[in-house]
């Protein structure tokens, strides 16, 4: 019963962070290059590995921001 | 025979076997209930769920086949990385809803949910059959992964000496899954994942140093790819952009429709456990990215073998034997964990959605759980027989089809979590058309996952599962409009909007 008051909540804008990885990874034209290299790793490979970490950080931020609101 | 590798291998294998049998005592529950046997009592916290899902999703076959793809064709194989990036934002949003509604209504499978949501046992049957069909070849492929490391220790690929270790490993697996249920793979996953992390950290430090540094390794791999016939691509070619993106997206959306992934989700103790895991599971994706690069290291090291043997061969060339025993044990145990969870998940589907629904509607919970245990045995024996008596390519092709098929349950399960607008018969027909389209696309390309779509005068190669699910959606939406106009209704939705949000 108590939960009923909370159902009319607004859309939480933090969720937009979770759309960014789809934009930055789904079109390889953005990152299919050899250079610049990082520690000898071509851009194509280190960019995607970096996106793993960035997406995890985004997800953690959204978790912290939304967990108390629902 | 590589004795020092074999001895270390056997020691670790025996250790996890003992652990598997003791697992039944862990947070002891009444294993005669399907909830307890098949979902570990829905009690797993953040850390156990992390190990369980990690062990479940990043399988032995992945560790062997993904770098083999890089080794064989280059940059295209790296789609596994964006694939595993996109899974987590997606499950963060979607899966807490499934967890809540399943908790509230006691659903054990996705098929249970669909039945309650759309009041349709036909749709539930379609979802159950798709799940079982997609999972079976996946279990068989775990054996392929295991076979690769067993033969690398000197047992050979075929004949009794190659098959016996496989049979022994699977018999052990079958018995402890039978007796301990989901608790067995959960406890073994912890050991296995730690072993995988150690293996990869060591390999990523030692092998590039031996190959003269990362930069040199990549350049050598580039040369080796160019020398191949047909040449592999070192950096993705623009013709493959859509195929790469659609493979990543299609695989990411499909992963959590597989019964074994859902079992991992539903066995967690809280919806926030799933969200926390969406933020910490990418640690495995990073490991997968490094494992994928092992394929390039094998190229740079001048390894010349069949694809799936590339990684074991690289290890044998670059690392000491005793360490290889440890690494190979990690991969072999990495086959047992997902194989156990997959067989439990298919068993749950069969006993709940086929046995209880169609064969014995008045069965007691004890009977239901007993049937599930029995089915988990049959499924594993089936996988073993399949690998021993049929060409390996059958299992590989079926698994490829399984990925296409499982995505066809997306409209019913995932969209179903948000709305019951779709007509149930429209969903059944859409599912059927999607299954047929995807299967035809794969066959027309001689069992390739990408299909060259001719549209508006252009040819776009893309993942067949994505094309098929678009057809599926179009059919479902059009038929829903038609059926609604005719006054057909779904009737009785068991769930209310509240059920998808409650925390306990």
TrEMBL record, chain A:
The keyword Transmembrane helix applies. Pfam families: DUF3311. The chain crosses the membrane at residues 12-33, 45-64. Keywords: Membrane, Transmembrane, Transmembrane helix. InterPro entries: DUF3311. It comes from the Bacteria. This is DUF3311 domain-containing protein. It comes from Pullulanibacillus pueri.
Automatic annotation (TrEMBL), chain B:
It holds the Pfam family SSF. CDD domains: SLC5sbd. Belongs to the sodium:solute symporter (SSF) (TC 2.A.21) family. It comes from the Bacteria. The keyword Transport applies. It is found in: Membrane. NCBIfam families: monocarbox_MctP. GO terms for molecular function: transmembrane transporter activity. The keyword Transcription regulation does not apply. The chain crosses the membrane at residues 6-24, 44-70, 76-95, 123-144, 164-182, 194-211, 241-258, 279-303, 323-350, 371-390, 396-418, 425-443, 463-483. Keywords: Membrane, Transmembrane, Transmembrane helix, Transport. This is Sodium:solute symporter. GO terms for cellular component: plasma membrane. PANTHER family: MONOCARBOXYLIC ACID PERMEASE, SODIUM/PROLINE SYMPORTER-RELATED. It is a multi-pass membrane protein.
């Amino acid at each position: 019963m108590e939960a009923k008051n909370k159902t009319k909540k607004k859309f939480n804008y933090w969720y937009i962070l979770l759309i960014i990885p789809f934009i930055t990874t789904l079109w390889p034209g953005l990152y299919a290059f050899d250079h610049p290299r990082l520690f000898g790793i071509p851009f194509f490979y280190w960019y995607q590995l970096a996106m793993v970490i960035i997406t995890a950080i985004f997800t953690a931020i959204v978790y912290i921001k939304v967990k108390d609101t629902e | 025979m590589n004795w020092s590798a074999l001895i270390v291998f056997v020691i670790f294998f025996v250790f996890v076997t003992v652990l598997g049998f003791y697992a039944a005592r862990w947070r002891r529950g009444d294993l005669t209930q399907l909830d307890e046997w098949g979902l570990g009592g829905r009690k797993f916290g953040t850390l156990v769920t992390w190990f369980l899902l990690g062990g479940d999703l990043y399988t032995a076959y992945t560790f062997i086949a993904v770098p083999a793809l890089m080794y064989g064709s280059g940059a295209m194989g790296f789609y596994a990385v964006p694939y595993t990036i996109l899974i987590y934002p997606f499950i963060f949003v979607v899966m807490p809803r499934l967890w809540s509604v399943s908790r509230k209504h006691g659903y054990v499978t996705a098929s249970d949910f669909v039945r309650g949501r759309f009041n349709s046992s036909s749709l539930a049957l379609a979802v159950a059959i798709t799940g079982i069909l997609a999972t079976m070849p996946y279990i068989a492929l775990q054996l392929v992964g295991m076979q690769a490391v067993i033969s690398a220790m000197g047992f050979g690929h075929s004949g009794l000496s190659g098959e016996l270790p496989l049979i022994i490993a699977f018999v052990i697996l079958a018995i402890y899954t039978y007796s301990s249920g989901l608790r067995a793979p959960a406890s073994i996953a912890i050991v296995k994942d730690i072993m995988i992390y150690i293996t990869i950290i060591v390999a990523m430090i030692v092998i590039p140093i031996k190959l003269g540094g990362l930069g040199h390794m990549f350049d050598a791999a580039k040369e080796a790819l160019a020398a191949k016939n047909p040449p592999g691509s070192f950096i993705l070619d623009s013709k493959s952009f859509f195929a790469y993106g659609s493979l990543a997206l299609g695989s990411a959306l499909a992963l959590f429709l597989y019964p074994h992934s859902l079992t991992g989700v539903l066995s967690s103790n809280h919806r926030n456990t799933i969200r926390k895991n969406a933020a910490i599971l990418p640690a495995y994706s990073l490991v997968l990215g490094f494992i994928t690069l092992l394929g390039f290291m094998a190229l740079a090291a001048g390894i010349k073998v069949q694809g799936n043997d590339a990684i074991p061969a690289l290890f044998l060339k670059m690392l000491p034997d005793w360490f290889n025993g440890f690494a190979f044990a990690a991969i072999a145990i990495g086959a047992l964990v997902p194989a156990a969870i997959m067989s439990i998940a298919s068993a749950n589907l069969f006993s709940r959605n086929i046995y209880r629904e169609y064969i014995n509607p008045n069965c007691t919970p004890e009977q239901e759980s007993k049937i599930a245990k029995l089915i988990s045995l049959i499924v594993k024996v089936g996988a073993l027989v399949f690998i021993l008596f049929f060409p390996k390519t059958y299992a590989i092709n079926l698994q490829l089809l399984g990925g296409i098929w499982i995505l066809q349950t997306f409209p019913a399960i995932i969209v179903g979590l948000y709305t019951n607008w779709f007509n149930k018969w429209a969903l059944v027909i859409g599912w059927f058309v999607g299954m047929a389209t995807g299967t035809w696309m794969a066959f027309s390309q001689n069992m390739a996952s990408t299909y060259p779509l001719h549209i508006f005068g252009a040819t776009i190669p893309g993942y067949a599962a994505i094309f098929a699910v678009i057809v599926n959606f179009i059919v479902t939406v059009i038929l829903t409009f038609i059926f609604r106009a005719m006054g057909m209704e779904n009737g009785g939705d068991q769930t209310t909007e509240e059920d998808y949000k409650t925390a306990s």
